[in-house]
Amino acid sequence: MKAVVSITIDEEFVVHDIKVIEGEKGLFIAMPSRKATDGEYRDIAHPINSGTRDRIQKIILEKYEEVMMQEGISDED
């Protein structure tokens, strides 16, 4: 896990605890989740279509990269 972020949508709705994760194919986001009684993790809040998920992920990852550059932090650190 690289970071935990929050987003605000239309200055009306906030989602906390979105994780930025380094996977085999690069960075991706994981929406906030909770462990269910069956041991599986289920998203608490999430986009209902892939287009919205892609837009949210793109915005978060662009901001993550921007902040890392400003802080002088690279993925190799």
What does this structure look like?
The protein is of the alpha+beta class and 77 residues long. The protein has one helix at residues 50-71, and strands at residues 3-9, 13-23, 26-30, 33-35, 41-43. The longest helix is centred in the last third of the chain and has 22 residues, at 50-71. 3% of the residues are buried.
Characteristic terms for this protein:
77 residues; alpha+beta; three-stranded antiparallel β-sheet; two-stranded antiparallel sheet; 5 strands; 29% helix
TL;DR of this structure?
The chain has one helix at 50-71, and strands at 3-9, 13-23, 26-30, 33-35, 41-43.
Strands in their spatial order, largest beta sheet? 1-2-3
Order of helices and strands: EEEEEH
For the sheet with most strands, the description reads:
3 strands, antiparallel
How many β-strand stretches? 5
Rounded radius of gyration (Å): 14 Å
Spans where pLDDT lies below 50 across 5 or more residues = none
Layout of SSEs?
Blueprint lengths: L2 E7 L3 E11 L2 E5 L2 E3 L5 E3 L6 H22 L6
Antiparallel strand pairs: 1-2, 2-3, 4-5
